[in-house]
Amino acid sequence: MPKQTSRQNVGKQDNEALKSLINDQTEARLKKEINISMTDPKSKSGPDNAAKKSSGQNKAASSSGIRKMPTMKETKAQLIKRMEKLLSELDKLEAKVEQKGLELESAEKDKGKFEADLNKVSQEKNNLEAELKNKEQNLKAALEKEKYFDKKIAELEKKKQEVEEQLVKKDEAIGAFEKARSDLESRMNSAESRAKDFSVKEAGYQARIDEKDAVIYQLNQEKQAIKEDMEKMTQKAEKQKKNDQAGQNQSKAAEWRGKADALWNGTAYDAPQKAIYYLSAALDLKPDWPEVFNDRGLARLDDHQLDDALEDFTTAITMKNDFAEAYHNRGVALLKGGKKFAATKDFQVAANHGIWLGMNALQAPAKGCGLISRIKKLFRFDRRK
After folding, report:
1. For residue 291, what is the enclosing H or E element?
2. In this prediction, what percent of the chain has a pLDDT beyond 70?
3. Radius of gyration (Cα) for the chain, nearest Å?
4. For the chain, which terminus, N or C, has the lower number of CB atoms within 10 Å?
5. Angle between helices 324-336 and 290-302 (to 10 degrees)
């Protein structure tokens, strides 16, 4: 791997630098000791003095706690041994460093894997929480359904009990029916025996019946012709009766309207409530009379029944589209109710059919009396045509 190779290269370079440093320090130390031993002035006094001096120095060093300076041979051997020991420890440290590097790489890999696993577990946790919430909602809905089904089951149990009771009653009825059927079968057997006796007589009767069938067929033909004639006569009589009834209704309706006309003074009804009663009686006998609807509208207008008057005028206009008087009278009623725009439209239609008084009254300047009073003074014509 690239990381391991770079770490090994760095370890080797450090090892070589350490070895070079140790060798340089060792050589420098050896040279220093050699120079000291060669330049020591007291060493010229002879071997005895050197021995005494060394022993004295050793004693002084031992007494003062200072370590005895090794000889050059001993110092180099110790340094080599120490260097080998340091190199050995350095190799161990390199092995440990390399092992720690591998462990670090493994730890980094484990860390990445652990983080991925942690993210996965977190995602799974969120999914499980959402699923749990969904399941809780489903469980709640299931509980509601369970309550509903429990209620339905209770109702079905009640119906089942009722059906069982009905089945018991039906079983009892079936038993009675079986008994009646048994009695009927016995009667049928008796009737079959009697039918065999009658079959002989039936052959004789059949010939007589065939003769009578021919006579009956001829009579039926005559009966059908008479029936058709009677139906024609009945339809004619009913038609005549309807005409007579319509004539009578027309006559009676005209009488009721005549009674209402007797209350008309030329501009209004003297007794509008009586007029309304008479005209309503006329409409009961002849409900398709637009002129009477117009008359009753005037009576209701005189009785201050504005909405009912408008309804009667509208009905008259619906029955007779060119009813100029009804348009004019409805315009007066609308004007009385304060609806001048709608009244103007009805006056315009009335003018198109020959009655201009409403439009003239609206177009004339108002002087003195009000608009409704002016219309009443100007409209001196029979509005009940």
Report:
1. helix 290-302
2. 74
3. 69
4. N
5. 20
Specify the pLDDT at position 269: 93
Mean pLDDT of the chain: 79
CATH number of 244-378: 1.25.40.10
Specify the 3-state DSSP secondary structure of 264: strand
79 C-beta neighbours (distance < 10 Å), count: 19
Name the DSSP letter for residue 71.
P
Tokens representing 72 are 């050059």
Cβ-contact 278, 260 below 8 angstroms = yes
Q: What residue type is assigned to position 99 of the chain?
A: Q
Give the per-residue pLDDT at 13.
61
The predicted-structure confidence for 237-258, as pLDDT tens digits, reads as follows 677 666 667 778 899 999 999 9
From the list 2, 220, 63, the residue with the least C-alpha distance to 55 is 63
Q: Give the H/E segment covering residue 270.
A: none
Q: What is the DSSP string of 96-158?
A: HHHHHHHHHHHHHHHHHHHHHHHHHHHHHHHHHHHHHHHHHHHHHHHHHHHHHHHHHHHHHHH
Give yes or no for a contact between 380 and 325, defined as CB atoms under 8 angstroms apart.
Answer: no
Closest by CA position to 285, among listed 243, 311, 251: 251
pTM for the full predicted model: 0.39
For residue 356, the one-letter residue type is W
CB contact set of 309 (below 8 Å; sequence gap of 6+): 297, 298, 300, 301, 333
Q: Name residue, tokens 């009767």.
A: 205
